[in-house]
Write a sequence for this structure.
């Protein structure tokens, strides 16, 4: 992303944040600011879903990169 576009995007985000009325969203943003290098924390339910997939049959799933490549090709991107 080029620098001018990055600056525009950051200003849009700042403007959006100043208009927030949802306290829980503000708290999530504050958490992200404290831990910029860490991934967004998962809920217990989300973590359980991921954990349940570890031992699942890999033949039932399509690799995400393969799927992404096919979607781009099929949509002319």
């Amino acid at each position: 992303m080029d620098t001018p576009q990055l600056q525009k995007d950051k200003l849009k985000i700042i403007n959006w944040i100043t208009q927030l009325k949802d306290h829980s969203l503000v708290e999530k943003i504050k958490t992200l600011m404290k831990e910029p290098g860490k991934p967004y924390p998962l809920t217990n339910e989300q973590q359980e879903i991921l954990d349940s997939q570890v031992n699942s049959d890999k033949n039932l799933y399509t690799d995400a990169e393969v799927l992404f490549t096919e979607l781009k090709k099929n949509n002319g991107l």
Q: What stands out?
A: The chain has four helices and no strands. The helical segments are 3-18, 23-34, 44-53, 64-74. Residues 3-74 form one domain. Residues 13 and 19 are 10 Å apart (CA to CA).
